[in-house]
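Run histidine kinase through structure prediction, thanks.
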Amino acid sequence: MIKKGIGRQIVLHYFIVVFVTLFMVEIIFTLAIRMYYYDTIYNHMSNHSIWASDYFQKFVRLNAERDPDYFTEMLRTFELDNTELMILDRKGEVKASSNAFQADKAIQTSDVPQAIAGNVGKWIGRQPSTGEPVMAVSRPLQIQGETRYIVRYVTSLESINAKLLNLTFLSIAVSGAVLALVTLFSIGLANSIVKPINNIRDVSAQMARGKFDARIKGNYKYELGELAATLNYMAQEIVRSNQIKDDFISSISHELRTPLTGIKGWSETLTIGGFDPEETKIGMGIIAKETDRLIGLVEEILDFSKLQQNEMKLVIGPVNMKELLQETMLNVWAKAEQKHIQLKLDDNTEEPVIVSGDANRLKQVFLNVVDNAIKFSHEQSWIRIVISRKNQYQAIVQVADTGIGISEESLSKVKDRFYQVNHQGGGTGLGLAITQQLVELHHGEIDIASELGVGTTVSVTLPIMEPEELEQSEGETGKL
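Sure, done. The structure for histidine kinase is below.
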């Protein structure tokens, strides 16, 4: 007995489909073979009745119907084995018969009226006296177009029905064997599906309990193979995400501890007192600097949280990309000067590029991109920022450096949250993840191309503001 589940459903569905199919085939086969046998018998008797009719017509022309031995001659000439030949009059009374036991009353079966009407009559039924199944074929014997007598053949169907019954039993046995084989096959098929599903279910249950090192083993095909591969990939990604999260917690803890240690140390030192104004100023400057660093870390985490929860609100308006990038360069100029890095802005457009977006958030995007370029560039190198039109509707900003570059393995993960190419470089690993989501909120795209040891180029594509939108925006600004 197959236990309740998908396996039983598969077997049951196969069984029902095959059973219904075999049942219909069995009915069609039985009817077809019965029709074939019955038609063969009918055609055989009908042909002999035609010959008897022709024989009768031949002797009619010679007035042989008056010969009292005429019917006896017909019976002897056209008699069939295991078949009774009868000559009837229009009333259905037997005038002559090949059977020694003649009926004592007129025959009124449906074949007789049909023959009287000039047609070939056929009747299948049971003999009133014996109950035996028979077939009767009657044909009119006409004189000058008028039916005078009827030639009637009657044969027993008992042996034929017995053969048909045997054939029916045989076909049922064959159908039963086929149904049994199909059931066995469906059980095997069901097991081939259910066993992998049970295996996948068990491993999935382990994953649900936190055992992400569990893997689905087995070379499964088609959708089951795809499902197993997907679950294994999911577990692998969860393990990787957990590792990245752990690295993030470790990194952010370090990032928070360093400024807090500086703030706490200088606070305690300044509390003791006894320092000259210059030393006090240096200490307060360090406290302010580390406080700004903490604020930056917290704001980065808050921005990421807002983006994850779709709570980031943008103040959309026209943004001049050249002016925005110039402001960005001024903000990072001091940091670039410390490493003697040259920043260069190239505008390859004839007209100002105006995009629709939130100026502060777009500035945050390019600050992060340029800041990363500075962080991972060599001293006395250069960073080039290029503005150009990708097409009529899009502008592209490229930030290219000649820094350390990114490996091919890290390049596919660099925009993932918490991921850091260099864990010693500091930060939360959220910068590029936030940058990508901010660009996507502006209906743009960000692409990173890099070669290890050669440099990195970050391309940001943004939609250009339509002239109608620009005019509408300027009009609303004028009203204000």
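The chain has a mean pLDDT of 82.
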